[in-house]
Amino acid sequence: MKSQIDWLPLSEGSVRPTQGRTLAVMQVSGGSQSFNAVNALRVLGRWMRMITVPNQSSVPMAYKEFDEAGRMKPGPLYERVVDVCEELMKFTLLTRERAEYLVDRYSERKEREPDRLKAVAADIGFVKR
After folding, report:
1. Total structural domains within the chain
2. CATH code for the domain in which residue 52 is found
């Protein structure tokens, strides 16, 4: 994931390409349970202006939680992962049509204003495009 984050453009114009998208964070580890990775990912999600679901999951000793076919075994950790996935789906459905409004910022509108005014002036014939 870190590599993918490194390749994302910081912004396109005044807009981050990730803003308004939903994010769920989960981690697997080979040792004891820790929430360090999910907490760091939550911070990254905020920085990228993503709508991060409140629920999160951490799967300790992940090598014990999967069967020979690579599927996660039934149990409390599996149920927690499903809970996070369901919450991601619900938040996505709830915010999909409203994401643009939720991440709308005065500073970004102000940054886009000169371009918008030039386009309006060109439309009404005050200036050439």
Report:
1. 1
2. 3.40.50.360
- List the single range of 7-16, 28-37, 101-110 with lowest mean pLDDT: 7-16
111 has pLDDT over 80:
no
Q: What is the mean pLDDT of the chain?
A: 85
Tell me the HSE value of 104 on the side-chain side, using a 13 A CA sphere: 6
Q: Tell me whether residue 117 is in a domain.
A: no
In a domain, 62, yes or no: yes
Buried residues in 78-116 as b, exposed as e (16+ CB within 10 A): bebbeebeebbeebbeebeeebeeebeeeebeeeeeeee
H/E stretch holding 30 reads none
In a domain, 111, yes or no: no
pLDDT above 60 (res 129): no
